[in-house]
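Data deposition worksheet. Section B asks for the primary sequence of the deposited chain exactly as it was used as input, without tags or linkers unless they were present during the calculation. Section C holds the resulting structure in token form. Section D is free text for depositor observations; keep each observation to a single sentence. Incomplete worksheets are returned to the depositor.
Section A, Depositor: J.P.
Section B:
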Amino acid sequence: MSKLPKVLVFDLDGCLWEPEMYELLYGTGGAPFHIEKDGNLTDKCGNHITLIGDVRDIMYELKTNPKWTNTKVAIASKVIYTQET
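Section C:
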């Protein structure tokens, strides 16, 4: 059996989902998010958040396949704060 990584780190915006969260905020959307019957998310304004590519399958694999039990999953994302003057 080949060695598996100890940690998998995912970026969020533009890598796991779209649109990017700042795009929702500029349109006064964002949290709270709601899970729709089809498993997708919408924000408080009804904007759809879409997982990119095979993200849903990859996350399912990491959660359910016992071979990943000893691998941690982490996120890395940049948050930009602005201050009004």
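Section D:
The two ends are 58 Å apart (CA to CA).
The chain has a mean pLDDT of 87.
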